[in-house]
Structure prediction request, 578 residues.
Amino acid sequence: MPKLILFAAFFKKEFILFRRYLVNSLGGMLTIYIVFLLLFGGYRGFASMAGAVGGSGIENLVVGYVLWFFMLTTYQDVFHTILLEARQGTLEQLYMSVHGFGWVMGAKAAAGFVVNLIFVVVLLIAAMLTSGVTLRLDVLSLFPVLLGTLLGVLGVGFAIGGVTLILKRIESYTQMVQFLLIGLIAVPAERFVVFRLLPGSYGAVLIREIMVNGKNLLELGVGNVLVMYLIGFAHLFLGYAFYKVCERKAMIQGTLGHY
Amino acid sequence: MVRVEALEKAYPGRKGEPPVKAVNNISFSVGEGSLVGLLGPNGAGKTTTVKMLCGLVKPDSGRIFINGKELTKRRIPALAEVSAVLEGNRNVYWRLTARENLEFFAALKGLNPAALRSEIDYYLEFFQLVEKSDVEARKLSRGMQQKLAIAAALIANSKVVLLDEPTLGLDVQASYEIRQLLKKIVEEQGRTVILTTHDMNVVQDTCERVIIINQGKIVADDSVHNLLDLFRMKVYKIVIQGELNAEQRQALGAMEEVVIEEESPQRTVISVRLEGSQILYDVIGILGSYNSVLESIDQEQNNFERVFLEILKGGVESA
Prediction:
């Protein structure tokens, strides 16, 4: 129950800020959509020059872009929150929570997931309408695979957040992570098993299987989904463990809330 | 309520430099319902001590107990007993309203905001924020933001409240209001408040007891009243017209209790520390013998700022 209260508090805060700064929120969505339009236009341009318009390329582009956006917002929900709270002067208050900082960030990420989901659905519909592609939206299959995919990204968020606690002003470097996320989605994990060990990569394969090739959860194979979860939890565990090491160092140095 | 035993903390030095000892074997305890000031010059170790009490900085050695729970062993249960305002008005969410901030901070401390409606209303009224309850914190004055930050620390009903520089940057009126509210918190709610400050008015006006830290060590730990008594002395300020002549300057300069504070062709200010009344007669005699024109003689009030400076100069080892 107390953890539910914590989640509800973060969800309410996210929702209030979304509503209170609606114009800004919509502006962010519009920017993401415009970037998609540029990518889509560029893709069509290159494809027509090569004489290969159509096919599953566009579908993969839409799925990849929407998934990248979801992974990016999930990563930012952890890393950016740590950065922002330290800058605002409220990080120490989160650390003084009786829930423990891990749960606090978990609640923040869960609340962020719900809000981001709204953005993602709107973006997906807009991208599908613009590109004219039809994707399979099997929610019952998509939802659990999506959750498992984002576990690894949370781990990345914690790891980068930990580095931020120690090194502070490293934003220009952490921005590179958004390009790293593109790489994680784009690696050919279907063909090369080793790539499946990367955060989110195996999940990206399974999501493409559902949305582009029309498979459902059973067709994916329960074993495959479990392996994907296992990899996701391993990344989350490693990322969080690394974060705890950095946190301990920051507590020894006395720089936990400094920015 | 709060017990600190042999606390030590050194920060790693910069490249090639030795570690910097911030807190050096300090011990103290603070009982329920007290308001204690933690004082010291910049870099004395006050903030490090407070952050160790919040579980935000790891001590190298020593133990901290908050309401019987050992924070240095099991951090989370002890954190239920303590709240803090460490970054002043930055300790609240500026884009949330006053009420929303109180609700969020209650949830962080494990309480259901929906069940705390009357407590939230109480604190909004207590801190005179009722009219601003639905205003975003960023739109409040600095004094109001500071009050809101303290209210957010109190909403969880923690037994111990730690305040780092609660009146820093506030105007006279806001500072006075915060001081009165702090006294009220202790008197009416029986909370234990430990505050750090550079403002000696805050100490003299609100604290029953002070712990003075210098270079990581406690150099005084006593009630404000006792420390004022310990350093009680009469200081007279004598103002004469014009400058002293060479003989007067030499005679007054030979007296340990006399300080020539200011000298100009227009006026001279001399302070005399009185340990017996004879010295005052001697000074008046020296001034009178050369027909210096007395402008005024005033007795200076003993204040805590003077006591604090005397202690830092080494006027007392430890009480």
Q: What stands out?
A: Chain A has a mean pLDDT of 87. The CA atoms of residues 16 and 22 of chain A lie 10 Å apart.
